[in-house]
Records
---
Amino acid sequence: MKITYENREFDIQSGTPIGEALKDEIQRSSIKEIIAARYNNLLASLNTPIEEDGTIEFINREDKDGRIIYIRGLLFLMCKAFSEVFPEALLTVNYQVSNAMFGTVDNMEITQEVIQKVKQRMQEIIAKDLPITKVTMTQEEAKIFYEKEATLKGKIQTDIDKDKVSLYYCEDYYNYFFGTMPISSGFAKIYDLVKFRNGFLLKYPSLSEPNCLQPNASTLKLISAMDEYDEINKLLKINTVYRLNKKISEPNGERELILISEALHEKKISEIANKIKERKNIRMVLIAGPSSSGKTTFAQKLGIGLRVNGIKPVTISVDNYFVERQNNPKDENGNYDFECIEAIDVDLLNSQLLDLLHGKEINLPTFDFRTGTKHYNGNTLKLADDEILIIEGIHCLNDKLTNQIPAENKFKVYISDLTVLNIDYYNRISTTDTRLIRRIVRDHNFRGYSAEHTLKTWYSVNRGEQKNIFPYQEEAECMFNSSIVYELAVLKKYAIPLLEEIPRTSREYGEARRLITLLTYFKDMDSSLIPNNSLLREFIGGSIFEK
């Protein structure tokens, strides 16, 4: 095989594993602690055999994909250690908290002694640098395997239309994990396992600081929002994709899922509207959240909830308050940085907000993005006594945006799709992945963008969120979880055809295949049953709120 690595060509015997074929290059590489590779734009284990011509590059935990593999490997080692120290433990990986994964054990109390024993066993496994191997079976072989083994580890693979079923083995321990795995246990250099609430945190480095563990930021409000949905899903017995698929297959199961999900959203929005009503001095509601959280529909539905309470909402767009283009800051690459707060004319915004709060009439600006300047077209606004401002934007939780407005006049809301559904008890579905799939569908339906374009820009979007939104999420007085337990079962039929259009030559091909594989785990749901005021309509179309 002809393999290109760092602009050099190598002749490799077909079937040779990547790590063995380029062993000398790995030792000489400037990339330290290599954990996996990209082989023809697909993520690949270092044990992957080379079976076609192509290009290879190596990655470590400083790469976003390498970091995910690192985390996945840590989870595998932790599960192995738990199974060996406490064989009867019913372990669940619940959700991510900052740079850590929160887990619980249903049938035992997590004490400091328990944590210490598991952590010690993890260290022993890591020190031995044990091989982690992938074992692939046909569906027929898997059926025989699961008849002999009383286990649910990876069994969901047998319930969908897949030719192969895969499990990862380390010594005699096996488990299913979705995605590429490190090839041996010695990869785990930086991690910690600590007791947290009724469970534990498996901590790992951030992408921005990959060589150390950061103190976990206080995320009590975020955790509370995720706990609420986690408990609801458990009560509904839909905390895994396997259980979701069973519910979808039941008579009227789809209708029940939709009705419960919509009722949950309406209840939370009504609670937020009631809190705003109770605070007599609130004059503006500030809404922020990451991309594809459903902010537009949420703001509309919150407005209805406020009207029911006798309060009339008036919307102001922060997008009309950008500074003049020549004053807009630039990023490290010399490009205009439209996401930093310095790109907003904060002084003008605050001046006009204060005028509104004092009963004055203002002349609203309109920002022309083509020319990079503000215009005044005669649009005026004056707040009546029964009116309240609703302002939505990425900086709305940052007090710098409204620094001249008294805190007692502001009510802040954080919204995000905080996914708490797992593939199984060990494999969680990333909140980021759910938002990305939402955005792929919405970008195609309403902006004419291809899935490839959305994937190319997603890293930049995430970077802006990490800098401008997530650090301020705990400043919110209320959090709204826009997650819908069945949404990927609906988005599946929209997203997969778009992802399949991405050619193999594209850098985004590997990510597209990963998302396609994830979506295949879900049974299809009938989107025609979704009401036209559902938040999900913001992405698939047919919303009553569309202009």
---
Amino acid sequence: MANQKYDAIVIGGGHNGLTHAAYLARGGKKVLVLERRHIVGGAAVTEEVFPGFKFSVCSYVVSLLRPEIIRDLDLPRHGLEILPLDGTFTPMLNGDYLWRVNDHGKSRREIARHSKLDAEAYEEFGKAMQAMCRFVKPILSMVPPDPTSLNPKDLMKLLFLGKRFQGLDAQAKYDQVQLMTMSAIDFLDQWFETDVLKATMSASGIIGTFLGVRSPGTAYVLLHHYMGEIDGAFRAWGFARGGTGAISNAIAGAALELGVEIRTKAGISKILVKNGKANGVVLENGDEIYADVISSSVDPRLTFTKFLEPSELPSDFLEEVNRYKFRGSSGKVNLALDALPNFKAMPGEGLHLRGAISISPSVEYMERAYDDAKYGNFSRNPYIDCVIPSLTDPSLAPPGKHVMSCFVQYAPYKLAPGLHWDTEKEKFGDTVINTIAQHAPNIKDIILHRQIVTPLDLEREFGLSEGNIFQGELSLEQLFFLRPVPGWAQFRTPIKNLYMCGSAAHPGGGIMGAPGRLAAVEVLKDIPGSGKKNKGKVA
């Protein structure tokens, strides 16, 4: 099989790899996607873990999927349907609750129950965040400039950003600088007084980072998640009908139609380099496949330290790669339920179960969860973000039964000396269920099956180094022209014809597809000429 030749090989069939492949095929390239697992999707997959119960095993909500990708690849025609996720319900230990919904007026009335001042501030906060989102949003669709370059294109981009900043009014400039430097809680403290409101809102600032809600820099992560948009509506989150895997399957369908070839159970062991140029890959079974371009949608550690020899890369570049922070901090517990959980704060079935259920009762609670993680333990009382997607999409569970997805922080990849995830896994699952039981006591009686996913499982099964769901922390020193490595944020690498197109590249993690699309634009600039489109196939 050594004589196979493609225009491009994409390593990894996650949603970014598939997006990248589809755009390259739109540009007339003959593209092969190689996926190590038995299905495509990477961390955006739906799997029938127990008979009749389909889980979004890892990533579980969609918020940042770029509208231009939905449009360019015509994803609705390939089966993409987003169902709205209505609101966030936060039960409190004193029996009260906070329930914000997508109806702004209702949310204001609910917040006014806790604080009339906060209800007023909520309106202003929303406007301020929208203004900041509008400032940052073009960056998600931009190839980062290199600030050290004298290239006119880079200088024009820097000038564009400078002018945009200058165009903000004084308050917006002030807010923007604060967002880049403050902790989520310090930022929210300036707006609100209600503890449970600040705790729940601050949760967006820590997802995918090994930081606490009081750690500087988490305010920007809060904005990153606040930019969630579906069909252009800010702050709209949702479920994909059929689970998160349906997003990957829709992109794969578009890619196949454009002529992409997709192979599963095709892990690679090595990237082939000749005279400083990437020109092929060696599969785990020993097969060699050649291409003019190799694009990696897996993370920098795998790409540069597992698939390449150290001698093939500049030593200063390798040092930066080794400094790149993963520090996975989250796990998942997926539950198959015989009935719905019954929350003490709001008993019975109701609309509050159709949105996110946030176990984030106070700021102190959130910070104490981080304290445990700092010393190498999973949180004794973790922050948990629960959703019950089977209420909105009954196809995920047998009639009358449900699936519940619990995203958990903190679950540090590196545990304290003497502890190992293989022996701590079940205890972690018990802790999560016990925490939910403080608010919904019937939970233990209705669990039919449970799947526990630790950071080590994310690394072993899904190829996410140290279990980081974003292929590297979304911290300020690892964003924009610093992601993944300073000087190499434009999807290219020190090896000619080798590109990065996954979440470790700009603009980062989440199911947005932007790294895959932007990297394809750069590849097509570098590799002129186009071939004929052909019907794709999946093997």
